[in-house]
Design a protein that fits this description.
Chain lengths: 201, 302
Amino acid sequence: MDGAETSYGAVWGNLSLRHRPADGDVEIIARVAVGDEDALEKVYARFGNSLFRYLLTLTSDRRLAEEILQDTLVAVWRGANTYRGRSSVKTWIFGIARRQAHNALRRNRLPLAAEEKLAALPAAEPGPEESLLVGADRGELAKNVGHLSPVHREVLALIFFHGLSYGETAEVLGVKIGTVKSRLSNAKKALRKTLQDPKEK
Amino acid sequence: MKAAHSMDLLPAYLNGTLDHELAKDVREHLQSCAGCRAELASWEAVSDAAVVRSEALPAPSAGVMEGAWAKVEREHASLTEPSSISKLSLAWQLLVGQIPLVRNKIWAASAVTMALGLAVSLLLSTGASAAGATFALFAPVIAAVGVAFVYGPENDPSLEIALSTPTPARLILLARLTLVYGYDLALALAATAVLAVANGTPDLWPLVSLWIGPMLFFSALALLLSLLFGSSTAVLTAMALWGARLAAATYSAPGLDKPAWAETMEALWRANAMLLPLAALLLAVALLLVPYRSVFARSRTI
């Protein structure tokens, strides 16, 4: 069992390698780095929508999210020459967006959601409760995702909507891969709880 | 036993980012483990909900990219082209910042000496021109002594810090020179105004022209000497020159003409047309030397 765990751990670290981005992305960033304005427009065309949706999981304020999106583009324009290709362009840009979001939220004195502040939830155990999620109304479940804490909304969005690997998600969030997994598990439990106890929405 | 591990792999298995080998393992395991299949089904529901939720979020409005370019422009403008107002305020800050770094005795000493010179000129001289000439003897040496203490390790406890700041040594020297010289100039002008009022001469320029040239020249000389040989050498030299000038001015043995050296001295003293360019030249040399002098001075005093 220990041996198996170790080998899984080693593979997780390399997950992002398997999920290599299009070389086109790297080339676009290289062009941004030399001051090509069209290239930044391409970055926006390629990532603007998904970045904006990601930012809206961190703040529900649309104006603020647009401002953070602009800050992110400015930061990409300024920092493109620091991109070293160690992670995919998408991961790199999402990481920038997250830092810009945190700066903006701090500037506006809005609280930053932290996993530590959430009540600890019991350990994972498969059981009859799983059927609760499976049998739930699709629309209601999606609405309840919006009622989760930002930190849970965020990890669910990064994994399932934006399709990042554990390694990439950990990089964007600036946490360990183990934290990504526990956040995912906690997010699922929190979502299940919204079905059990609708008053706590 | 593998079931426990597969559990936290399921989200990555679902979104297709799992390593190929691992995905195969999970797939095989799922076939034999009903618990994990149930878990996968619940993750599918969660994944589905997360996707539906994110898809429902709006797209950014049309002007976002233009707004980003505007931000780039604004940052660029504030980084590369400080407005003339901020340049002025920078110069002002530099000047004000130097005030506490100039030896505070310079201010009082200059004022007292200038007042003394004024008093002597008023009390001991008879007639307007004589008083002006007497005062013209004092003004230059006061400024020169002040300027001699403007710069250098023995005068500046913060020189170590100053040398390691991005503000160039030349700029610091210029700022202090402006301060001290401006102060002495103001003192001398005020004293001249008092003289003019006391003697009833409304026109200041004839009086000012008596000391402005020598004052500039003496100050520039003292500055250069203080940079080359230290403040005390500069003060001694200035004093010696001043003594010679004083001797020339007061040399009056009855029945004898002034000797040639005294005549020359007095003529030189009045030759503003020659003294002013000379002062500018000395100042230029001093400014040229400052950066090297700073390092040199530091190594010498340690």
